[in-house]
TrEMBL record:
SMART domains from the UniProt entry: ZnF_C2H2
Species name: Schizopora paradoxa
Domain C2H2-type, chain residue ranges per copy: 15-42
InterPro entries, A to Z: Znf_C2H2_sf (IPR036236), Znf_C2H2_type (IPR013087)
Protein name: C2H2-type domain-containing protein
Keywords noted in UniProt: Metal-binding, Zinc, Zinc-finger
GO molecular function: zinc ion binding
Length: 110
């Protein structure tokens, strides 16, 4: 059940990045985003484990998506979302849930 704010509660103000003017729900998201504009790329906490791949990400979920889509044969395969509409006919698999949902809507009409 969703929590409803009381009418006396102030709505959250969105915060804006000074560099690119993109807005965020709060300071946490803005601080995480501001690393993108930093010259110090060592703040990217998640690096691809493939030695010759330069990919780095701020969020582990983005690294997992990268590994599943760019290095599908890597033994560190994280998670695969499989199409469940008609498993006998459609054996499509995806590295993230939103891709699976798009597939099911576009291909299967769901």
């Amino acid at each position: 059940m969703a929590v409803k704010r009381s009418s006396s509660a102030k709505p959250r103000r969105r915060v804006q990045c000074n560099e690119c003017k993109k807005t965020f729900r709060g300071p946490f998201e803005l601080n995480r985003h501001s690393i993108l504009h930093s010259k110090d790329k060592s703040k990217y906490a998640h690096k691809c484990p493939v030695s010759d791949c330069p990919y780095t990400a701020l969020q582990k979920s983005n690294l997992n998506t990268h590994i599943n889509s760019v290095h599908p044969n890597l033994s560190l395969k994280i998670r695969t979302e499989k199409c469940t509409v008609d498993p006998d006919v459609c054996n499509a698999d995806f590295c993230d849930a939103p891709s699976l949902i798009r597939h099911e809507k576009k291909v299967h009409g769901y």
